[in-house]
TrEMBL record:
InterPro entries: Desiccation-related_membrane (IPR052928), YtxH (IPR024623). The chain crosses the membrane at residues 29-48. The keyword Transmembrane applies. Keywords: Membrane, Transmembrane, Transmembrane helix. This is YtxH-like protein. Signal peptide: none annotated.
Length: 120
């Protein structure tokens, strides 16, 4: 089968056979997918932050691995909640202190505006 040549077609050849190779498209995709899965798995195991023994223990007890992750996540959320509550408490305390200081300043300013006539 002859490949399509645009230049030949535009210069007067009315009929041409376009070359289509569809036989390897699915096979190439499958091969690429399989290769990507294998390479990704190997890279994940090679670059894992755990030692081989710890990794094997995790694979032998996958439920425990997810429970450990869940506990870490719950602890992290509790810690963030405690930090948020502490910040909120300090902000509320600062707001209360600020209001008390404003009231004291107003009181002082009001008292200083009053003239004691007996001292004149």
């Amino acid at each position: 089968m002859e490949r399509y040549n645009r230049d030949l077609h535009t210069h007067g050849i009315d009929e041409y056979n376009e070359y289509k190779d569809t036989s390897s498209t699915g096979r190439d995709f499958s091969f690429g997918l399989l290769l990507g899965i294998v390479v990704g798995t190997v890279a994940g195991l090679v670059f894992a932050p755990k030692s081989g023994q710890a990794l094997r223990e995790d694979f032998s007890d996958p439920v425990g691995m997810f429970e450990d992750g869940k506990e870490k996540l719950v602890d992290s959320i509790k810690q963030k909640k405690a930090e948020f509550e502490e910040v909120s408490r300090i902000k509320k305390m600062d707001d209360d202190t600020l209001e008390l200081q404003k009231a004291a300043i107003r009181s002082e300013a009001h008292d200083s505006n009053v003239i004691d006539m007996s001292k004149l």
